[in-house]
Amino acid sequence: MTRSMGKITLARRIVQVVMLGLFCLPPLLAGWGLAGLYAGGDGEVATPAEGVFFGSLSSSAAAGIPLLDPLAALEVLASGYGLAAVGLAGAALVVVAYGLVRGRAFCGWVCPVNLIGEGVDALRRRLGIAVPERVLDRHVKIAVAAAVVAVSALVGFPVFETVSPIGAVNKGLAFSGFAGAGTLAAIVIAELFVSRRVWCRSLCPLGGLFQVLGRAGQMNVHINHDACVHCGRCEEACLADPVILAPALSGDDVIVRAGDCMACGACVDTCPARALSFSLGRLPARAQTRREERDPVAES
């Protein structure tokens, strides 16, 4: 079955592609080629790092402002290398920005591995390959994130950064850094033949860290219970894990509260009754509202 692309998904796809291109611009503007190749002559040229923006999704700088992947920062600190105040500030800035919006909005709107995962989803449907919806609990990736930090402390270097599939795409295109290519290939194979979105849903340590931050996010999927027809299309479309929609669909909540929500908008786009939309703020759960209506007098 061919699926039409909704407005939010189209906007998200544009952002994903723009983000990939953004990291490729510095070497191109400096006269270099992609994948770390230099295509110029013998004359002196600027290095890519001299531009307004430079770096990768692990570590970058925009207009002199450092931006650091918070998991990478934790790995560096745990491994004993130490981190300058400017690095800590860069990691804190990323935490605050994604924490206020939705922690896993990074996964849905920026991460190139999710973009590839969506492509694998489409390929699997075209090939008619059936796989389980899930083989591991979505909370496993939180434990994986903790293990990554612990192992980094034991071995004395940031372990995930050496095998990160995010780096295989991001750093590979710009700098020819394909250290995580093997991990990325394994993810594609697992997505095709083992389980849907198994890496992003259950194993990615960065996703686990952002899942924890996601509980404080102010951008939430809101449900209009009167409009919902319980067709199940939102659960089918969910990129994170359909189980996170259960409290809202059952009537116990008015928003998708789980930190795992990527704010990707796939469920909003696919809803035929327009019962789902984005809203700002952590609204009280519907069950809590009902209790307050029954007992409006608060204890002093």
TrEMBL record:
The chain crosses the membrane at residues 76-101, 142-160, 172-194. Keywords: 4Fe-4S, Electron transport, Iron, Iron-sulfur, Membrane, Metal-binding, Transmembrane, Transmembrane helix, Transport. Pfam families: Fer4, Fer4_5. GO terms for molecular function: 4 iron, 4 sulfur cluster binding; metal ion binding. Coiled coil: none annotated. Signal peptide: none annotated. It comes from the Bacteria. Residues 219-248, 252-281 form the 4Fe-4S ferredoxin-type domain. GO terms for cellular component: plasma membrane. InterPro entries: 4Fe4S_Fe-S-bd, 4Fe4S_Fe_S_CS, Electron_Trans/Redox. This is NapH/MauN family ferredoxin-type protein. It comes from Adlercreutzia caecimuris B7. The lineage of its organism: Bacteria, Bacillati, Actinomycetota, Coriobacteriia, Eggerthellales.
